[in-house]
Write a structure and sequence with these properties.
Blueprint (H helix, E strand, L loop, with lengths): L1 H19 L1 H7 L4 H22 L6 H18 L5 H7 L3
Helix pairs in contact: 1-2, 1-3, 1-5, 3-5
C-alpha cells in the first residue's frame, strides 16, 4: 500500500509542476522517466517554498517557512510525510 501513497505523492508534484509552469512541464516531458520524476518532485518542493514567499502575504511567512523546513527535515529523517509534495521530494535521497 505504501507504493500507492508514493505514486499519489509523485502525481501531486507532477500536477503542481503542470499547474504552475506549463512550458516547463512540456519541456520536462521530453526527458526519460526517472529524470522526469525527480524534476517534478524537486519542482513541487521548491514551488511550495516559493509560494510561501511570493503569495502568502496575509500570513506569517517566516513561521510558514520555518514549519516547512522543519517538516522537510522530519520527512527526510522518518522517510515519510503526510504532505505529499514533501513526501515525493524526500524520496529522492
Amino acid at each position: 500500500m505504501l507504493q500507492l501513497y508514493n505514486d499519489a505523492s509523485f502525481r501531486i508534484s507532477k500536477i503542481v509542476t503542470h499547474c504552475y509552469s506549463t512550458s516547463f512541464y512540456i519541456a520536462v516531458s521530453l526527458l526519460d522517466t526517472e529524470t522526469r520524476k525527480a524534476i517534478y518532485s524537486i519542482y513541487g518542493f521548491v514551488r511550495f517554498a516559493d509560494e510561501i514567499v511570493d503569495t502568502f502575504h496575509d500570513f506569517n511567512k517566516k513561521d510558514l517557512l520555518t514549519k516547512f523546513e522543519s517538516s522537510y527535515y522530519k520527512a527526510y529523517k522518518d522517510g515519510i510525510s503526510l504532505n505529499p509534495v514533501l513526501h515525493s521530494f524526500q524520496r529522492l535521497k
